[in-house]
Amino acid sequence: MKKTIVTLACALLATLTFAQTSPTATQKTKTGTQPTTATETTTTFTAGTVTTYKPGKTIVVQSNLGAASFALGTAARIVDGAGHIVTSELRPGQRVRVYYTGTGNTRTVERVIVEE
To answer: Which long-range contacts (CB under 8 A, 24 or more apart) does 52-56 make?
Structure first.
């Protein structure tokens, strides 16, 4: 019985001894840099009155340059002049300033400021 306990104790100590890692072990990793590509987006705006508004889809604004249609993406925010989010739907005739990116048929709204 005593011999069995001594054998188990030795086996336990042996596994703990072999399981320890060296405190001076280091791991070297090599990192490389990848070239970055810079894309520049220009945000412009159009000011005018709302002609048509379909929530989540499009907004058409009549300005002194004519009517312009914009796509409303999921990131588009509609705010008032103080920056508070507007929860009510836009109505035809409301004065707005539409900030967007893109040109022609690919104009996407970033934010709409409702002017009171």
So the answer is: 52/92, 53/89, 53/90, 53/91, 53/92, 55/89
DSSP summary character for residue 39: -
Q: Does the model's pTM come out above 0.85?
A: no
Q: Where are the domains of the chain?
A: 44-115
The topology under which CATH files domain 44-115 is: OB fold (Dihydrolipoamide Acetyltransferase, E2P) (2.40.50)
Task: Concatenate the DSSP letters of all residues of 60-110 into one string.
Answer: EEEETTEEEEEEEEEEEEEEETTSPBP-SPP-TT-EEEEEEES-GGG-EEE
Give tens-digit pLDDT for 37-72.
666 667 788 999 999 999 989 999 999 989 999 999
Nearest to 76 by CA among 90, 94, 92: 90
- Give the span between the Cα atoms of 116 and 114, in whole angstroms: 6
**1 pLDDT tier (thresholds 50, 70, 90):** confident
